[in-house]
Amino acid sequence: MSHPTALAGTVRVLAFDVFGTVVDWHGSIVREMARLHPQVDGDAFALAWREGYRPAMARVMRGELGWTRIDDLHRMILDDILPRFGLQGLGEAERAHLNRAWHRLDPWPDSVAGLERLKRRYTVCTLSNGNIGLLTDMAKRAGLPWDCVLSAEVFRAYKPDPATYRGVAQVFDLQPEQVMLVAAHHDDLEGARACGLRTAYIERPLEFGAARPKDVSPRPENDLHCADFLALADALGA
Predict the structure, then answer these.
(1) With bands split at pLDDT 50, 70 and 90, how would you rate the model's confidence at 151?
(2) Cross-strand pairs, 14
(3) CATH topology of domain 26-103
(4) Which residues form a coiled coil (predicted)?
(5) Read out DSSP for 4-52?
């Protein structure tokens, strides 16, 4: 870890990526499918649903689609993959309920306690491509103690658009280096770093399930590398 005490004195806001970093999307979707549609391979279903996420966002970024909330992108992807899993017969109410599974994602075991510690010393907010309603519902259900919910929806741009990272600093009237992005994804951290933000990498080796462990090796370009949010709180003196 590089100079956590020095960082603790300069960083004011911690902005968190959410899907995969704060909440376990894969495990949560697998559990939803086991409950709602036990005949379906929940692991394959979760991965297929998530695989559609970047291509769908890319269509918005290229201008093929107008600004679209993640809830609506998730629904487009869901409607597309249902036939592959024998679920094309689901009615509208069932589809709408299943789509809101993303509002019901469970936090990683350290997330709530880690955020509560960090919140005592720092402003903690989301910086997610998820829309505000989704993130708020998720926080309410999971007990995530955000000071503020910031979303791509606020900036009308998806990460890694610089407008999102710079936007956090602008919202709080801070210099970029007073904001730290906390994420389990190196591409997200790279985008933040290019805009002058500090970066903390969080290991989430099981993001894609136990069968597909992630390489969580440290990379020197990140300011901090932490096993979880409790270790981040230790590093930042919270």
Answers:
(1) very high
(2) 124, 180
(3) DNA polymerase; domain 1 (1.10.150)
(4) none
(5) HHHHHHH--EEEE--BTTTB-HHHHHHHHHHHH-TTS-HHHHHHHHHHT
Q: Where are the domains of the chain?
A: 4-24+105-235, 26-103
Q: Using an 8 Å Cβ cutoff, are 222 and 199 in contact?
A: yes
β pairing state of 13-16 and 224-226: unpaired
Closest CA to 138 of 15, 53, 25: 25
The angle subtended at Cα 137 by Cα 131 and Cα 143, nearest 5°, is: 125
The pLDDT value given to residue 231 = 97
| Whether the domain at 4-24+105-235 and the domain at 26-103 fall into the same CATH topology | no
Neighbour tally for 37: CB within 10 Å:
18
Instruction: Name the fold adopted by 4-24+105-235.
Output: Rossmann fold (3.40.50)
Is pLDDT at 1 greater than 80 in this prediction? no
